[in-house]
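# nightly structure sweep
# worker-07 picked up a monomer target from the shared queue
# config: single-sequence mode, recycle default, output format = structure tokens
# input follows
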Amino acid sequence: MRILVLGHTGYLGRHVAEQLSALGGVRLFGGGRSPDADLRVDLATADTGRLAENLADLSPDAVVNCAGSLGADPVTDAEVNARGPAVLCAALREAAPTARLVHLGSAAEYGAGEPGVPVTEDAPTRPVASYGATKLAGTVAVASSGLDAVVLRVGNPVGPGAAPMSLPGGTALRLRRAGGDRDAVVRFGDLSAHRDFVDVRDLARAVALAATASGPLPRVLNIGGGRAVRIRELVQGLVAVAGFRGRVDEAGIGSARSAGVPWQCSDITAARDALGWEPRFTLTDSLTALWASLGAPGEADPVA
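# output follows
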């Protein structure tokens, strides 16, 4: 089976590629902007015709799109998260119309949830910022493409190698830099919002199952931990794993997105039914692996 992973050098893409490469009978191709990519492409600016030619040359049985913009700015979000999937779908219809497309969406597409009620795939989508809105546009492009496609609507990924721009990755780096200083103070805004965290390795396994599943899949599947976790709990968990002896100061205003989405949790029943998938890693497992992936103090900080 020939599988192309777009965004194969990113945080999610690296784990997905590793999971797929461990499967027997899979020939893996990497796609993206990196010089060593088998398919050099930037979906934000790609020409549909040229991309179709390149896809025809690779002749993939499945394509996994891990490329995405994490709320960098509205223009970049639109180019990568909305235009990118639309161009990819158009090229696939021309070059590989029978290939399975697995696209990574985001729980941010739902917007704020009702406390205590996990959202199902048919819940209304009310994104509150450009990131969620453009991810939703990408989902619409994929779901309406007519291709053999599934969107995995992902919660908040956490685990080894988490990007420094993410809350888990950024928090771990701040604790690492503070070291063992008892007088160190690490400051945060409001940490009262709830999120659904999913280990990146569990996500990668869901992608592998979706890419290799026989028969059609639902258009959208939630992939999350299935549990609403207060962000404060995640920070406290990292403090414990890191052995941080200083003080965590929670004061001031948090991010605008947290304020707009105080509670979020995904119902993952459909993914269990369609893929036989469920999370295997606990939040503690994820945080322990994240901390270990940073390396020893004094080593160079990881980059996104």
